[in-house]
Amino acid sequence: MIQETSKIWMDGEFVDWADAKVHVLTHTLHYGLGVFEGIRCYQTATGPAVFRLPEHVERLFASAHISALKIPFTREEFQVAILETVRINELDAGYIRPLVYVGYGAMGLYPGDNPVKCAIAAWPWGAYLGDEGLKNGIRVKTSSFTRQHINISMTKAKVCGHYVNSIMGKVEAVNDEYDESLFLDTGGNVSEGSGENIFIARRGYLKTPPLNTVLEGITRQSVLEIAADEGVEVREENITRDELYCADEAFFTGTAAEITPIREVDRRQIGAGRPGPLTELIQSRFFSAVRGENEKYRHWLSPVGT
Length: 306
Ligand code: PPE
Fold this sequence. Notes:
This protein is α+β, with helices and mostly antiparallel strands. The chain contains 8 helices and 17 strands. It has helices at about 25-30, 55-65, 75-90, 130-135, 165-175, 220-230, 240-245, 275-290, and strands spanning about 5-10, 15, 35, 40-45, 45-50, 95-100, 115-125, 140, 180-185, 190-195, 195-200, 205-210, 235, 250-255, 260-265, 270, 300-305. It is globular, with a radius of gyration of 19 Å.
């Protein structure tokens, strides 16, 4: 169960958690055209701070633009509302979920003049794939469902309906007693997890799929920057399934998943079957960055303030 907090921001005002409701004929609930974000807030020595807030708000607006939804707020208003949502709920650390959806009005596929509605919720959320997974690595199953084709779903947009594909894979993986699913794209290359980007390490360098069929992950981007600062080469190139099987290391990146090592794929051990040196390096640099312990990455944090 979700850990409830006190208030949810809805269209410019805060309402009690229990009152944050919509009509059952809300357009997005039927057809899936809505866009969302997942953002984390971390505890730092100088108080809670939101990780890469402008980048997340920018992606939310890009998702809306791709989906032809006009958000009735500015980027600045959204950023302020996100910080206020963390503050009002007195969260030290947690997860923030902004959502933009098509409200009640006409039914039928044409969204017409239905209002574009917005909400922001925030709640405490620990390790997405478990503390044990974060520490020792997770077991992954290649999904029998293919990732959406780039001209079927606009993968640069974080659209609610895209996650049906993710859920199919996730449920299949969990039912088969794995922790997470991995999708291949229509060309057969490794794409991404149900809610994560993937990296592999091989012969001393990192490799991640190019931004064709995958979400433009903000954690992925942070890893690219950390790797560059550490002098670790990263190639944005296609990865095949057998190449993944033979990787020295592999890990998932995502706001919810953070940096989660992968220790097994399809019952094949990856590398030594535990987090390898590059994974541990990236993971430790990432966690010190989000906790404000590294001056170099201080600009990634927006203090929540009092
Ligand atoms: N790919 C997908 C499909 C995806 O959903 C996410 C985030 C990523 C990659 C990584 O992107 P980023 O968070 O910017 O590094 N998935 C979000 C939803 C998870 C959920 O279960 O809900 C997240 O991590 O917030």
